[in-house]
């Protein structure tokens, strides 16, 4: 048996300002740092064997803050190619335990196109609430110049199947630190949600969502809080 731990990054400086963020590389707010540390506290004694994050700093920060509390080992970023890969190899024997950490744009937030940088309430005033809700939560309506959730899934799901699932199959506990919509596409896939169901799916910042992997199946344990699991998927 192994565990899949999904976590949306803590609040970012642009979440706080209520701006469409997408691929804009914004760091965590002070509250976001606290959320990530709190998640780390909850996961303190969990064995984490491998980490996947997006290429965006808010997800990387969140994973590192979680690991700053964790005893599994030191997260070591595994670069895929070039000098970063070649020159970051370890040749000595220092006896440390390392947790391989992979960064990939496949896990990045949905690309929000021309909405990036726009205030979400201002967008509602300009385009109407209904239109903005479709851009933000529907499955196949893309924001102007950006990705629909369906488009996002075209990059997240092959990565999930090709890189993340094989680790679970090898009994590795996996931490995935990513974003509201990249995680919505992954949860939609795992849970087999319909287009209508995914409209209601909102993933809270900085709360670990735990799955158990056994015999080829992922079973949801729920969102992990101080007091235990919230088994519902749609957190109010
Ligand atoms: O701005 C964004 O990139 C995302 C996540 O914060 O926003 P939304 O909740 O609208 O999908």
Automatic annotation (TrEMBL):
Q: Where is the active site?
A: 9 (tele-phosphohistidine intermediate), 109 (proton donor/acceptor)
Query: Which terms under GO biological process does the entry name?
Result: gluconeogenesis; glycolytic process
Q: Which InterPro entries match?
A: His_Pase_superF_clade-1, His_PPase_superfam, PG/BPGM_mutase_AS, Phosphogly_mut1
Q: Which UniProt keywords apply?
A: Gluconeogenesis, Glycolysis, Isomerase
Q: Write down the EC number.
A: 5.4.2.11
Q: Describe which pathway this protein belongs to, using the record's wording.
A: Carbohydrate degradation; glycolysis; pyruvate from D-glyceraldehyde 3-phosphate: step 3/5
Extract the GO molecular function terms from the UniProt entry. phosphoglycerate mutase activity
Residues annotated to bind substrate? 8-15, 21-22, 58, 109-112, 120, 136-137, 180-181
Query: Which reaction(s) does its UniProt entry say it catalyses?
Result: (2R)-2-phosphoglycerate = (2R)-3-phosphoglycerate
PROSITE patterns membership: PG_MUTASE (PS00175)
Site feature (Transition state stabilizer) residues: 179
Q: Could you say which residues form the signal peptide?
A: none
Family note = Belongs to the phosphoglycerate mutase family. BPG-dependent PGAM subfamily.
What job does this protein perform?
Catalyzes the interconversion of 2-phosphoglycerate and 3-phosphoglycerate.
Cross-referenced PANTHER family, in alphabetical order? PHOSPHOGLYCERATE MUTASE (PTHR11931)
Q: What is this protein called?
A: 2,3-bisphosphoglycerate-dependent phosphoglycerate mutase
Native organism:
Thermococcus argininiproducens
């Amino acid at each position: 048996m192994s565990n899949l731990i999904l976590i949306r990054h803590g609040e970012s400086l642009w979440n706080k300002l209520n701006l469409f963020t997408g691929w804009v590389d914004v760091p965590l707010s002070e509250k976001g740092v606290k959320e990530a540390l709190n998640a780390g506290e909850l996961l303190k004694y969990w064995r984490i064997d491998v980490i996947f994050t997006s290429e965006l700093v808010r997800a990387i920060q969140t994973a590192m803050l979680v690991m700053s509390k964790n005893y599994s080992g030191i997260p070591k970023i595994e670069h895929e190619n070039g000098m970063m890969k070649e020159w970051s190899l370890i040749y000595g024997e220092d006896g440390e335990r390392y947790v391989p950490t992979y960064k990939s744009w496949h896990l990045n937030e949905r690309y929000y196109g021309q909405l990036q940088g726009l205030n979400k309430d201002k967008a509602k005033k300009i385009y109407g609430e209904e239109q903005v809700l479709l851009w933000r939560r529907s499955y196949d309506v893309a924001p102007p110049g950006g990705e629909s959730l369906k488009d996002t899934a075209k990059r997240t799901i092959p990565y999930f199947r090709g890189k993340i699932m094989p680790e679970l199959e090898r009994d590795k506990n996996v931490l995935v630190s990513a974003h509201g919509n990249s995680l919505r596409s992954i949860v939609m896939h795992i849970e087999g949600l319909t287009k209508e169901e995914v409209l209601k799916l909102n993933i809270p910042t900085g709360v670990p969502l735990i799955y158990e992997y056994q015999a080829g199946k992922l079973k949801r344990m729920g969102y992990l809080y101080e007091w235990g699991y919230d088994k519902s998927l749609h957190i109010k």
